[in-house]
Amino acid sequence: MGEQSSVDAPKQADGQGGGLQEAGPAHAGVLAAIHAAAFPPPEAWSETVLAGLLAQPGCFGLLHPAGGMVLARTAGDEAEILTLAVAPTARRRGIGAALLGATRDRAAARGATALFLEVAADNAPARALYASAGFVPVGKRAGYYADGGDAIVLRADLSRPGAAAGG
Ligand SMILES: CC(C)(COP(=O)(O)OP(=O)(O)OC[C@H]1O[C@@H](n2cnc3c(N)ncnc32)[C@H](O)[C@@H]1OP(=O)(O)O)[C@@H](O)C(=O)NCCC(=O)NCCS
User: Fold this and answer.
1) pLDDT tens readout for residues 15-42
2) What are the pocket residues of ligand 1 if the criterion is a CB atom closer than 6 Å to any ligand atom?
3) Which of 18, 27, 124, 139 could form a disulfide with 23 if both were Cys (CB 3.0 to 4.6 A apart)?
4) What is the pLDDT of residues 118-149, one digit of tens each?
5) Which domains does the chain have, with CATH numbers?
């Protein structure tokens, strides 16, 4: 991710996941590059979109310099993962799990007691990751995605320390 050298040095994120850094709007270019590597072109989020999201109240981002990123936001006592991506060359090294764990920590620190996300029903790697982190299905959105695919709504309990793996 060579673009990273052209942006402000991110702060080191504390908590789980060594190497994770907090990402703000200034890092949107790096985040977009990771997103484009991880998703097919129609699903990749642009630098502009990512910068706009990161500027919103309650929204936060985390970056792993090896090629991982997550965006989430909190509202009241609920939090939501907007997107999570690990570049293909960086997968199966625990980066997705580390991003997820750090997101849980941040959401809980901001007062959230539950963390939600939508995942494509046929996205086996992501569903395996979320299941291993303690997320459970709480709903289904038929035809949620542009290709007509269904989304599964997942929830993780943040109200009890250690309620799910990775917490
Ligand atoms: C889903 C994704 C974020 C996983 O990132 P990752 O860094 O490879 O995940 P991790 O290495 O932390 O994996 C943690 C656990 O998740 C599960 N997992 C992850 N990828 C898996 C795969 N391809 N097949 C089966 N299980 C998988 C495993 O249980 C894994 O533990 P293990 O490696 O000890 O077996 C990554 O594949 C990705 O970016 N995919 C494309 C974008 C996407 O689908 N994002 C989520 C949208 S909701």
Assistant:
1) 445 789 999 999 999 999 999 999 999 9
2) 38-39, 84-86, 91-97, 119, 123-126, 128-129, 132
3) 27
4) 999 999 999 999 999 999 999 999 999 988 99
5) 2-113 (3.40.630.30)
